[in-house]
């Protein structure tokens, strides 16, 4: 079955989907994107992702193509048509189609593309989920807090990680400070046993999984500091882990070929992995967005073609 995409108001086979060659996303990278994890047929941290989407649009002055309620209907329909129970839904909004000119065009409608794809189930074994990383210089632009489609520097970093047989590339800025991964938020338990992640500023993306995890930390009474790490502090860390919509809580047990501490996931990482797994599983979160299978195993819809809530949910 061909995957189905939503492109500027219509659903079509992804293999046949296209955008205009003068779309400003293609011409200039003039657009933003967002990714939401789908776990057991449920969107995870929907509100956080939609809030970040709105912020990114505001920061580069692109009007929202539709309100959140309408967008959720489209997101659910794309997921339903692709029968994704575990995976991601991806949305990209650009400034639209206009004659090529660096200045913003006037009276142009933003372009919206949404796709969904299957992915692996949420990891349950921490040791097998652990990975390795390398460090590379951070050569990105000055507004990394906006989730734009300008990802060339991130791609170059990720490719270096792949060539080294590693999961992630950790970015180090000109001042010798850890910023983030090429597609992840970086956390560490420092040599003194303090859980730390960099403070939010223009140089890192405000991760939605980071935001969810900080709430869980507060609720569990676990202390942490939003304070930057020097490269030396990072290399001396007791534990390192990453967070993102697709990394969840991922231990890093080797850095630049050397083991992190004893080379195994640490107790803090294990505790936070457990907390986030319960958050992703739990009916207390995102229940209004649950995509319920009917008796045939397909995702059920109401008479209007909208996804119906799961039994006993909502």
From TrEMBL:
Pfam family, any one: Aminotran_4
Record key words, sorted: Amino-acid biosynthesis, Aminotransferase, Branched-chain amino acid biosynthesis, Pyridoxal phosphate, Transferase
Family as reported in the entry's similarity comment: Belongs to the class-IV pyridoxal-phosphate-dependent aminotransferase family.
NCBIfam families hit by this protein: PRK06680.1 (NF005209)
EC nos: 2.6.1.42
Pathway: Amino-acid biosynthesis; L-valine biosynthesis; L-valine from pyruvate: step 4/4; Amino-acid biosynthesis; L-isoleucine biosynthesis; L-isoleucine from 2-oxobutanoate: step 4/4; Amino-acid biosynthesis; L-leucine biosynthesis; L-leucine from 3-methyl-2-oxobutanoate: step 4/4
Cofactor(s) named in the record: pyridoxal 5'-phosphate
Superkingdom assignment: Bacteria
GO molecular function: branched-chain-amino-acid transaminase activity
TM annotation in the entry: none
Single biological process term from Gene Ontology: amino acid biosynthetic process
Name of the protein described by the UniProt record: Probable branched-chain-amino-acid aminotransferase
GO cellular component, one term: cytosol
EC class: transferase
Secretion signal span: none
Function: Acts on leucine, isoleucine and valine.
Catalysed reaction equations from the record: L-isoleucine + 2-oxoglutarate = (S)-3-methyl-2-oxopentanoate + L-glutamate; L-valine + 2-oxoglutarate = 3-methyl-2-oxobutanoate + L-glutamate; L-leucine + 2-oxoglutarate = 4-methyl-2-oxopentanoate + L-glutamate
Record InterPro entries: Aminotrans_IV, Aminotransferase-like, BCAT-like_C, BCAT-like_N, Class-IV_PLP-Dep_Aminotrnsfr
